Amino acid sequence: MLKESDSVAKYKMADSLYQVAIATGKKAKFRSSLKLMEQIVPLYRGKPQAEKLSYMYANTFYNLEDYFVAGYQFERFESTYPKSDSVEVAAYKSAKSYYELSPSSSLDQKDTEKGLEKLQAFVNKYPNSSYRIEANNLVSELREKLEKKDIDTAHQYFSIGEQIGSFKPAIDAYENFISDHPGSVFREAAFYGRASAAYNRAISSVPAVQKERLLVSKDFYAKYLKYYKAGDKKEDADALIAAIDKELEKYQQPTEN
């Protein structure tokens, strides 16, 4: 059939293979259908069958887990056929394709940010969609991944600080995290990390500024305690404030007899 010149016969065969693939989930059928579709998609532009063929084409890439191409093809379908009955599912699958491209939190998060943007745009555009709950769950997952990236970066600054004795970048990173992610599951770690980094900065500083910086770390501990009196890091935080107070004892004025 690939060698035939009859585009109508190729369309029928591609459609038949695609329907079997949808019913069975067999990727070999999707691949066979795709080979035919790649030949005829350009030939059907502007024709009545083009809408259905364009959707099948995008969805075939999606089912073959070629999410980069699937996302692009679903986007094209959205823009070309905005009044199609399939435009909502195409919009969702386009967004989910970018979700699927999102890498682990240790890698560059450009695709994660794009997936988040696309999914949020879908939810805003189709607030009553049957995909809304799933889309919102994916949004939460991608946001948490970005938060994980940021908290890990702050922890890395802390580790580097231990090596080179400079904890200011870690303090700044933790403060930025607290400001940027007010509802994050990692927020307690950021509050504790900030206090710990400030303490380490203080004790590694020259004597002239140690007291001032110890008081800053004590203030950060108080802010941790305000939100996390029963937090997972409470035991570590209590040990930290004990160390801070012990250092501050050096600056107490001796009592007179």
What does this structure look like?
- With 257 residues, this protein is mainly α.
- The protein contains eleven helices and no strands.
- The protein has helices spanning 7-24, 27-40, 50-63, 67-80, 87-101, 110-125, 132-164, 168-180, 187-203, 207-227, 234-248.
Poorly predicted spans: none
Task: Please write the string of helix (H) and strand (E) elements.
Answer: HHHHHHHHHHH
Mass-distribution shape = rod-shaped
Radius of gyration: 28 Å
Helical segment count: 11
Alpha-carbon distance between the termini?
Answer: 106 Å
Mean of all residue-level pLDDT scores: 94
Largest sheet: none
Helix content: over 70%
Query: Which structural class is indicated by helix and strand composition?
Result: mainly alpha
Strand proportion: under 5%
Number of strands: 0
Secondary-structure topology with pairs:
Layout: H1 7-24, H2 27-40, H3 50-63, H4 67-80, H5 87-101, H6 110-125, H7 132-164, H8 168-180, H9 187-203, H10 207-227, H11 234-248
Helix pairs in contact: 1-2, 2-3, 3-4, 4-5, 5-6, 6-7, 7-8, 7-9, 8-9, 9-10, 9-11, 10-11
Give me a quick take on this structure.
The chain is mainly alpha-helical.
Tag the structure with descriptive keywords.
257 residues, mainly alpha, 11 helices
